[in-house]
Amino acid sequence: MFSHPVPGPPEPTGHSATAPGEPALDGRWRAATAGWRSSSIRSADPERVWAWVRHAWEGAVALPGGPDDAAPGPTATGPDHRVEDLLSVAALLALQERFLAVAAGEAAPAAVPDPRRDGAPLGEDEALAVVRRTWELDPAGADAQEFAAELSGFLEDHLDERAEDLRLSLLARRGPTQVFAELWSLDHGDELDPEPAAEGAPPFPLSTDDIAWIVSGVPGPEKHTAWEWLVR
């Protein structure tokens, strides 16, 4: 009998592939983002959005071999961490989309990006396993269309709760001023420090000068509304 090596996760393409981060987490990031074609990125700078998603996601996981100082949030390092990472990415995409909508004077979208619809590798059985952690759901004997709609609804509820948990975790770990400045910068790069950053420097975390430029600039009603939404 011949043995075949287990294929690794597909290589991500597009802007998620270039998001800088901790090299030790590159494999997990690839597994969580390969295939994403998210329609929830409303910013004119999707590369910057993916850089922030990775920066925020790395704050919610424990670095392999490092001190486990991760606050609430998935820190799994076993075979199931791919699903946890994938769901966190979806929740962070929802968080940035909602913030930018509020910052633009719009209502925060109620929908959460569905990892299955947006092309990430989340199987129906994996989605069902996630939903069953909280809700009783059994496909046996159920109408296929009704069950699919019910599963999608529960998965959206789960991701909605995760987005809220990650919002609170980010605020607790980094402080509201830094989190606000990072999210605001996704669609307002013109408000960053005009002095060029060091060559090759990642976009996140923001420098203290960048944060100061954003929070000390003209406040305006949009900033006030977005701030109140973030720290509610």
Which class do the helix and strand fractions yield?
A: mainly alpha
Q: Report the order of strands and helices.
A: HHHHHHHH
Sequence stretches where pLDDT stays below 50 over 5 or more residues? 1-7, 65-79
Q: What amount of the residues lies in strands?
A: under 5%
Separation of termini? 60 Å
Discrete helix count: 8
In round numbers, the mean pLDDT is 81
Largest sheet: none
Q: Helical proportion? A: 40-55%
* Radius of gyration based on Cα positions: 19 Å
Q: Kindly state the number of beta strands.
A: 0
What overall geometry do the principal axes of the alpha carbons give?
globular
Model description:
This protein has 232 residues and is an all-alpha fold. Helix 1 packs across helix 3, helix 5 (144-174) crosses helix 6 and helix 6 packs across helix 7. 34% of the residues are buried. The longest helix is centred in the last third of the chain and has 31 residues, at 144-174. The chain has helices spanning 26-33, 46-58, 81-103, 124-131, 144-174, 176-185, 208-215, 220-230. Mean pLDDT is 81; it is low at 1-7 and 65-79. Helices cover 48% and strands 0% of the residues. The chain has eight helices and no strands.
Secondary-structure topology with pairs:
Layout: H1 26-33, H2 46-58, H3 81-103, H4 124-131, H5 144-174, H6 176-185, H7 208-215, H8 220-230
